[in-house]
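#structure-requests
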Amino acid sequence: MKITTKGLNRFVKMKSIALSALAVAALASTPAVAGPFFFSTGNADGQLGALSRRPSAGKIETETADDFELTQTTAITQATITGLIPAGTQLQSISNVEVELYHIFPQDSANPPSGNVPSRQNSPSDVEIDSATRDGSLSTLAFSSSLLNGRFSVLNTVVNGINKKPDNITHGEGPTTGQEVEITINFTTPIILPAGHYFFRPEVLLAAADANANFLYLSAPRPIVSPGTPFATFTDLQAWIRNSNLAPDWLRIGTDIIVGTPPPIPATFNMTFSLTGQTIPEAGTPGAANCAGQTISALAHQFGSIKAASLALGASSVAALQQAVRLFSEP
């Protein structure tokens, strides 16, 4: 059969289009690649110290939370938080740390809310993600503390003035100075979560006898600046706080309590923390019948074996990693 130049050109063009279509299809079907995960809000900025405290004798629970994002299923293996403890307090006085994670309201929440606070839009949920709670006293996390600065000051604090409206605006409780410390938290039972937008809430217990010995969670710049890692998908939300008297509601530290006092303090805040882990792109879907099996298989394939996975993810044992998978797999 005779092929003309015009016909040959048409054939080459059609072949090029077909190859391009195949390349696009192949790219669209390429699975996500496993890799390290890291998120950070950067360094403390000296603007705010907000109480985040485990309950103890004579001291009610107070929670401060800030948000982060995951773009795919991830095993969170470590966190750091930066805070202020009173001058002269020994690092050994940091006796326990608990971490909870929250969805965004209205998930896991009563809706409509109580009306006791100005707004619940973009707040943490009423209740935590139970499967993601880790507690040093239960050996699901281990922690260590280091001194960053022996004398560090903040312009304002929020400790006791956490009130229902219309008494929510207190303008804070004034400046303070103490020791800047970093607490490194290793999750001996890793926290596995699907892609999404979450709040991170650490609490610290100080064993010091002084009634005023508290851990003040330090603020970081908002929006996030270097060396922090800005959000890629979701909007970076401001920090929220509540105590046992306000729960299940939350208040925005900047918008509802401090309201820009004293100038030039920012209108909203992030808190100083980081998260480290590994993505698991082939993990199962929580609630699905095969989620646990698929996730274990994905981990074994990704790291070479389930034992190698437990070592790489900092789990205290293979059983601890299996427990993390079971918790993740629950609906």
